[in-house]
Every structure is written in C-alpha cells, then in structure tokens.
Design goal:
Helices cover about 20% and strands about 25% of the residues. By secondary structure, it is of the alpha+beta class.
Length: about 325
C-alpha cells in the first residue's frame, strides 16, 4: 500500500562508484579527497647480520619513489618505543613530511622467537604524517583472541596487543579512526582455528566505539589468517568483513576491489600474496561513517623487486638477497 511517504535514503547507493577524479599526486598529499595509507609487518626492522636478516630500509626507499608520501602507516611487530623512534626518524629524514608514532606498548614484555633476541619484543603502532593529522583523545589498546582447546580466549603475547586512535584530518576537516592489528596464529581446530571471526567482529565494534568512529574507519595488519581456504572458499572472518563478497560488516578490501575491477579475481589475489609466496594474511579494510564500503584507488602490494629497485636507485648499492620483511606491504588511497 502506498503510504505517500518518501522511501528512506540509501546512504550506500554510491559505495561502488569510482572515487572522484583528483589531480596527479604530489610529493605531499594536500588533496582533501583522499589519504594515502600503508600497512606492513616490519619484523623488528630486519638488518644484515641478524639471525633472520633483511633490509628494512628498502621499504622506505620504495615509499620515497611513490607519490604521495604516506599519510598513515599501520605497523606490526615493532620492538618498542625506541625502535619506533628509529623508524619515524628515518621516514622524516628520507620522505616528504614530518611523522610521529602511536605505539600499543612502549616497552612490551619479551617472548621466545626463532629469530633470537632481535625479535624477543614485539608490539604494534600507527605512524601519522603531522601535516595531515592531529591525534584526538587517547589511544585504545586491546588484546586479540586465540583458540585454546576449542575456545576463544585472550592471547598472552605482547605482539597481539592492537592499537587504535582517532585522528582529525586537518586538510579535509574530517575525522578518521585507524587501528593497527596483529592477531594470533591458528592453534585450534574447526572452521575458525585462530578465532579470526571473533577478532574481526571485535575490531568493528572497537572502531565504532562512542569516542571513535568518524568519516572514515580504517584497520589493517597481520591477521595470521588467510582470506581463503585451500579450496578457495572464503574463510568465515573474511566473508564477514568484506562487503564486496556480501560480508555483513561491509568494509572495503582495496586489493580485492582492484582485483575485481580487473577480472580474474582468484588469480589476482594469488599474485597479491603477502607471505610465503602463496598466502594473503596482511590486509587493509575501510568503511565510511555511514557504514558503507570506502572507495579506494591505486591499491598495490609492494613486491620485493620494486623495493630493491627503489633502494638501488636511491643509494646505488643494495643486497638483492635481503628483503625488507617476510611480509609484503600494501598501499592504497582511501577516499572520503
């Protein structure tokens, strides 16, 4: 029956439209339409000569080769505040902009690591570009869930302490809540052996807490759980979060979106592995303040060859056998 009332406005009617056209990126992003976001498990800034060697500075060289400079960098597995200061200083020295860090725990408790002392301390952090963002209120920290004897309980590792902060975008005059997450490895049986679904439901709840929220909600990190099962079906946590596959939480995975736009989704996702050459466990997700999938552009998984090439161009000397991390990083533009 026609009641004569106007139908409710669908606030998400345009969530799958292309982002607005913007000017070509500059060294520092002063465009109010979008922010440039990176994520990477940096593995305690691996260097040559360690038990598990690497060259973390290759990633900084890559960032320097791409415009614009990062507005946000979600970091997993930083050792402590001193190591975060090292990373922030290197970014400020090498990249356009001045950066600052927000850490989950300044001095996390130690843990055993197959890589020895260099990785005995692990925590998570958010790095912001000061010219773009100002911190609003206090950070929020919480512990991830882990599957123990068939039940989800709070994990006891310092590295699974997630950190979230609300930011004010001084250029766009909008608010953004961001979280850097590191979940526990699978230790149980059944369809959700790492309690990933419970972790992602809690992350969504945290982002929408009264003192947080905003015009954009972004979380990312090392989820220690792939997006897909061995038969290519979506894992329950991923099916819940990715709105493009019908997930009720309705976030955008920018890498998935880029793969969907280009066709051949499964093969494209395989090409965007982040660890081991075959698993995608590191991701970014975004949603706008109305609960709609955030619009994204230029999502990209940063290959070791790209970072190596950037480092060679920048310094003229780099070791091709050392990668910036065991985890490949991701970057994407998120639009308001």
């Amino acid at each position: 029956m026609d009641t004569g009332e106007e139908p409710p406005v669908d606030l998400c009617a345009h969530q799958d439209d292309a982002p607005p056209a913007v000017d070509a990126p500059k060294a520092i992003n002063d465009d109010p339409a979008f922010i440039q976001v990176y994520v990477n498990n940096i593995e305690n800034l691996k260097i040559q000569g360690e038990q598990c060697p690497g060259d973390w500075t290759d990633l900084i060289a890559y960032m320097k080769s791409i415009q614009p400079s990062p507005d946000l960098f979600l970091v997993q597995q930083i050792s402590d505040s001193a190591q975060l200061d090292t990373l922030v200083k290197r970014m400020t020295d090498e990249l356009p902009g001045i950066f600052e860090g927000i850490i989950a725990d300044a001095d996390p408790w130690t843990q055993l690591s197959p890589c020895g002392k260099e990785k005995e301390k692990q925590t998570n952090a958010i790095i912001i570009r000061q010219g773009r963002f100002a911190v609003v209120g206090e950070k929020h920290v919480w512990q991830s869930w882990v599957n123990k004897d068939g039940e989800c309980v709070r994990n006891n590792q310092a590295r699974t302490r997630n950190v979230m902060v609300k930011l004010h975008d001084k250029i766009a005059d909008k608010d953004v809540t961001v979280a850097s997450l590191h979940w526990a490895t699978a230790q149980g049986e059944g369809p959700d052996p790492a309690c990933a679904k419970q972790n992602v439901l809690e992350a969504d709840e945290k982002l929408h807490k009264k003192a947080f929220g905003g015009d954009l909600l972004i979380f990312g990190g090392d989820f220690n759980e792939p997006d897909r099962k061995d038969n290519d079906d979506w894992r329950p946590w991923y099916a819940e979060v990715n709105g493009d596959v019908g997930g009720a939480l309705n976030y955008r995975d920018p890498i998935f979106r880029a793969c969907k736009s280009g066709g051949g989704v499964q093969a494209c996702l395989d090409d965007n592995w982040t660890i081991g050459g075959d698993k995608r466990i590191d991701m970014l997700f975004g949603q706008d303040g109305h609960g709609c999938r955030a619009r994204t552009r230029r999502a990209h998984t940063i290959t070791y060859a790209e970072a190596e090439s950037a480092a060679k161009e920048l310094t003229g000397d780099t070791d091709p056998d050392l990668n910036y991390s065991e985890h490949r990083g991701i970057r994407a533009e998120f639009y308001y």
